[in-house]
């Protein structure tokens, strides 16, 4: 079988795929990104809240916990150096009942164990001094949380990739991977024709398509290709001027460990525009991006638990994104899967599975983990 030869192929041009490709190219590898869309970063990466997470919620020892706080620090340094707009505005995790307040100290201890540096337990009066519009009995004030210009980050990573000699092939989808001696053959569909790339290293960062590509990889054991689920999250924009300078999260949502999200919360973009979301709506389509206006009543009720002054008619449908999940409704939340050759036995291959939040925050840390799994020297 004839094939075009290169050093490394990254399937998927989202923010994680670009971060990985940048790291491989900067390690001196001829690197090609395969992106099935018309541009990089236009699918899941373009449809999230743009939050730089601190690492509060994740189970101790999980990959999410290990990569979030270091990843946020790496990302902040990178953005400062690359001129990407970001702001560490902080957030309040607000408890509106005594039972929710009683759970905050344990959540703080978890956060500290996960590497969160600046998180304080405060009472309702202190919280209202910071954000006068909220109503709560207690809160956690986490200063390590921020927001980022996601589009600017995508552009910066893509520019770094090009500067290091990497290339991006658009409208090119990796369909299958076949080990061939000490190389991997990647079958690519695009522009009405099929091509084969031969590479020493392949990273499957295909997001929603990653489990399918794993299933279409010869020689992988069945457990290397988990079932995938799609969790749609809608956002509603606030049509007035934001009364908040920080992000506001409800305390109760993730307490069971089975929540697929963190509850409807208030987020800001780098310009200060306020929006609410995401909620969780299970779907069977990864491209289900329509916002149902009928969900507005549920949003309003959830928000008024901690912001009773939300004006009538102040929300408008904004956008929706779909999170790639490795667990379904009512199941325990799943961790990232970063499966290298040590996990599945295929030399030169890394599968990134279930990379949802905090994937954006952790993108540079994930890229460093991939380099380590492929036993490449650090830059």
UniProtKB/TrEMBL annotation:
<comment type="similarity">
    <text>Belongs to the L2HGDH family.</text>
</comment>
<dbReference type="Pfam" id="PF01266">
    <property type="entry name" value="DAO"/>
</dbReference>
<dbReference type="InterPro" id="IPR006076">
    <property type="entry name" value="FAD-dep_OxRdtase"/>
</dbReference>
<feature type="domain" description="FAD dependent oxidoreductase">
    <location>
        <begin position="7"/>
        <end position="370"/>
    </location>
</feature>
<keyword id="KW-0274">FAD</keyword>
<keyword id="KW-0560">Oxidoreductase</keyword>
<keyword id="KW-0285">Flavoprotein</keyword>
<dbReference type="InterPro" id="IPR036188">
    <property type="entry name" value="FAD/NAD-bd_sf"/>
</dbReference>
<protein>
    <submittedName>
        <fullName>NAD(P)/FAD-dependent oxidoreductase</fullName>
    </submittedName>
</protein>
């Amino acid at each position: 079988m004839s094939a075009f030869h290169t050093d490394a192929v990254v399937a998927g041009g989202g923010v994680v795929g670009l971060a990985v490709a940048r790291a491989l190219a900067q390690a001196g590898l001829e690197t090609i990104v395969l992106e099935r869309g018309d541009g990089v970063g236009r699918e899941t990466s373009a449809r999230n809240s743009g939050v730089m997470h601190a690492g509060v919620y994740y189970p101790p020892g999980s990959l999410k916990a290990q990569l979030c706080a270091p990843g946020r620090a790496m990302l902040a340094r990178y953005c400062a150096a690359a001129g990407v707009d970001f702001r560490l505005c902080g957030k309040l995790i607000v408890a509106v009942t005594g039972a929710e307040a009683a759970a905050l100290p344990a959540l703080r201890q978890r956060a500290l164990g996960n590497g969160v540096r600046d998180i304080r337990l405060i009472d309702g009066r202190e919280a209202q001094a910071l954000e006068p519009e909220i109503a709560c009995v207690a809160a956690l004030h986490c200063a390590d949380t921020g927001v980022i210009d996601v589009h600017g980050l995508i552009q910066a990573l893509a520019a770094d990739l090009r500067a290091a000699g990497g290339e991006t092939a658009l409208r090119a989808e990796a369909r299958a991977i076949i080990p061939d001696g000490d190389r991997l053959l990647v079958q690519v569909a695009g522009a009405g024709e099929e091509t084969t790339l031969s590479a020493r290293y392949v990273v499957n960062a295909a997001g929603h398509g990653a489990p399918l590509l794993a299933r279409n990889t010869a020689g992988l054991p069945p457990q290397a290709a988990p079932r995938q689920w799609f969790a749609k999250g809608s956002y509603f924009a606030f049509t007035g001027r934001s009364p908040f300078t920080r992000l506001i999260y409800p305390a109760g949502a993730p307490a069971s460990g089975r929540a697929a999200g963190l509850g409807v919360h208030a987020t800001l973009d780098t310009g200060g525009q306020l929006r609410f979301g995401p909620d969780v709506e299970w779907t069977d389509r990864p491209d289900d991006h329509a916002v149902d206006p009928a969900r507005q009543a549920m949003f309003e009720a959830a928000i008024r638990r901690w912001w009773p002054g939300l004006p009538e008619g102040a929300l408008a449908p904004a956008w929706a994104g779909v999170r790639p999940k490795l667990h379904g409704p009512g199941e325990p939340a799943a961790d990232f899967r970063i499966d290298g050759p040590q996990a599945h036995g295929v030399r030169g291959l890394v599968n990134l599975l279930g990379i949802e939040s905090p994937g954006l925050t952790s993108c540079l840390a994930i890229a460093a983990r991939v380099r380590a799994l492929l036993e490449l020297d650090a830059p």
